[in-house]
């Protein structure tokens, strides 16, 4: 409908200026209000305003990235305080699924209410999660807080990507996406020392409490800038603000339909109930035969069946944008990107602990090694963005460099997981893997955006990120299923008889694992058990790397320089600079 109206206008009024066409479209075209608002804000942003926008986004990214880096370093100690070290991936499963499914209704928030409003909602959810983490007294409360935390964090991450896509041309997006992650180059190196200071000082709770204050302070300026630019542009252009004429009941029914809450709950429940048993079965006396495990699997399948029936026959509005996501580039790009998370999260949850136990690194040095992935990922993303801007093509970067390098690096991680491997070789493998993942992630993002128009940016990025988070949850599920099965078995086999009574304590707490001095029989047994378990994880990860390579083959290799962006909000940055002069 929108394109038809637009064509009629241009056909009937060929002499009308581009400015008149823009005003006509904003006032009379039935685009969703959030998309209109993004276009109005774009029209009001000068080069200085764009610089201010990116600076505020960078501040938010720095603050939240620092919080995450600190949290990663303290996480084993948080769970060990609750004697639940082996449950780290279980929490990741639930939080990843909820964060994944929530992005699609969030995309509708962005399109119906606006980018500023959507970001404000996610900032609030993130802050609630951080406060809950600081105040939690048991692992159940911390797990619930983790759901709020990651839903808010991933939601903010997603909204900021949409804002960047709104305001930069397709050719420049890859480079700007790479720059957007640049704060990780700093937070990677300061996160672990800060975490160490918190652990040795006021405690890990204050590592969350501090950011419960810092995050809202960093995020508020961006919200105000977007709202101010929208109001200024609307008043200047004379475009009337769209009013809603619904009472409370009508509004409730409208948003219930738009957000498809029933579909949302069924899909989230299905994924959670199917994935959680893989991390919980080993703790049940009857294993897979446990009534709880059987019930979770049965109800998980039942939720998926109900979801399919609901979406096919009863849903007034479909939860998933089926027509959009049928495109092979969107499917291939989403899977290739998501597979980097799948492979990474198969082994990531226990990597820091293994470095401290096997290599004897302290929390700061272990954090540096773990965070190499963030640094290389960012640098590779910036390089990929520059290459795309120069060559106007993206597929070759992922197909001939990124995917083969990912396979090689994961194989090296498997090879160097032995107890006798020098730390330097592990660092080398991490560098290779980080570069590979950065190249694949950024090129896949550009690929999916190259085959859509501006109006569909929010929903397609939501699907793209949803698939990524679901794959992340699957990776954590595989990790938990393998670890909870093999690690206690290896400990039971390797520990000397004198340490067998402490097996449960050693299994569930990194404090207990590190309490034995290097070179003692107990510590050697723990190191050997870690090495054997990590090799199982890396072996699974290596097999999964092939998925990303195959997915890349399905991409269309769009020339981003030649592609004409049809929506007004997608005009080239260079033209805006020219007009501002």
From TrEMBL:
A GO cellular component term found in this entry reads: plasma membrane
Indicate whether Thylakoid appears among the record's keywords. Answer: no
Report domain Major facilitator superfamily (MFS) profile positions: 53-560
* Protein topology in the membrane: Multi-pass membrane protein
Q: Which PROSITE patterns match?
A: MFS
What InterPro entries would the database entry show? Answer: MFS, MFS_dom, MFS_trans_sf
Q: Which UniProt keywords apply?
A: Membrane, Transmembrane, Transmembrane helix
Name it: Major facilitator superfamily (MFS) profile domain-containing protein
